Queue: 2 jobs
Job 1
Amino acid sequence: MSVDFTKGSAYAKNARAKKMMLWFGIISLIMGFAGWTSAFIVSSSREDWFENFVLPTPFWYSTAVIVLSSVTFMLAKASVKKGLQRQTTLFLVSTLLLGVLFIGLQFSGFSEMIAMGYYFTGPTSNVTLSYIFLIAFVHILHLVAGLISLIVVIVNQLRGKYNEEEYLGLSLGETFWHFLDLLWVYLVLFFYFFA
């Protein structure tokens, strides 16, 4: 009796390749943000460095929101593993809405900074605040990429592409989302202790 392992091994190879590509992307993003936060620390020795900056409250609210969104994404994966399709969709849509709320709160935080007279560039700008604007905004851009991948996951979920045994796309989306979550938690704590 001959057993055909080609399909299973092709699927496994494809899954490994996609996971490896995702992790290469994540590692390159970690290196980029490590570079920016290192530059932030090095620049803090400048004479014009702004001391004791307090992050606006919406940044803290957004932190709670993105952590909650990681929980809903985990619940979506747990649901698909149990074959609970409707529940999976509900948790994925909840994650999407929380992601949009996160971005809204981030812009609210930026608005508060501008209302305090702090700008990214111009005569009233400051190198400290320029770094905060830049790093937070670049994170938002990556979160938009996360939202786009999440929309793809939701569309695939609605088309019935995921089930108890095959949910690679959802799993990859979840990994990227958790990375973005942990990255923001790191950044907000970094700003709290070093700004």
Note: The chain has five helices and no strands.
Job 2
Amino acid sequence: MKKLTTLLAALLFFGVLNLYAPPGDPGGDPGVGDPPVGAPVDGGAVVLLIAGAVYGAKKLKKKNKEETEIL
């Protein structure tokens, strides 16, 4: 039983290490005129900004309501 547990622990350990390994080099040489590759900033950022603004406004409204109830 101890050997089985050790084997499973080793497989799990090396399996997790394999998941976090960096990807291999795709090979090839990028052309001179190719634009740099980056992450696109599209509609997802706008949605998050709007959601944050709505959440903040809701919190401020709730805080102001609680302050007026105390007075």
Note: Residues 43-70 form the longest helix (28 residues).
